[in-house]
Give the backbone structure.
Amino acid sequence: MNQEPTEKLIQTIMQHVSLLPEMREQLLSHIFIKRINRDHYLSLHEKDNFFLHSGILKKENQLSGDIAHFMLEGDFGIFPSDQSNYSFVSVEPCVLFVLRARDIDNLLSQYKQLISPYRDLIFEWAKQRQRRIELMLLSAAERKAAIVERLGWSYNRIQNKDLANYLHMNVSYFSQLPL
């Protein structure tokens, strides 16, 4: 496995918990790399966890076209259930590190000190979902300003039609709003 990308993952994990060498080796032995091309669907098992190393994903409802979320480099995600109408679609080529749900359960039972940081990660995932609901309470201009601030330089890597969809706006109106 390429050392640099996995090192970024390990550094992200170590912001929340210190990893003993055997924990680190055990964790890395269960991770696999998934690459997806632009405009392709991410295919994983239900409840698999992933870390987006590079690229941008959007979480899109396949029935309505609604975009519920954007994921950027460094974000953590959980693959939706088979009953969900939402899928992850790549906005640009992506590289992800994937940890199967069953492997997470095994690691958490083996290394109890990982449970609390894992819960924090899940809580952060939930807070990201909540941010969209809070955005919808703002005016259109405020919503655009907030998404530009949240996405930073990645804002220009996402099509206006997708950003407008996410913010529940008409794309021409969205484009007329100042940055």
In short: The mean pLDDT is 90. Helices lie at 3-14, 21-30, 101-110, 115-135, 140-151, 160-166, 171-176.
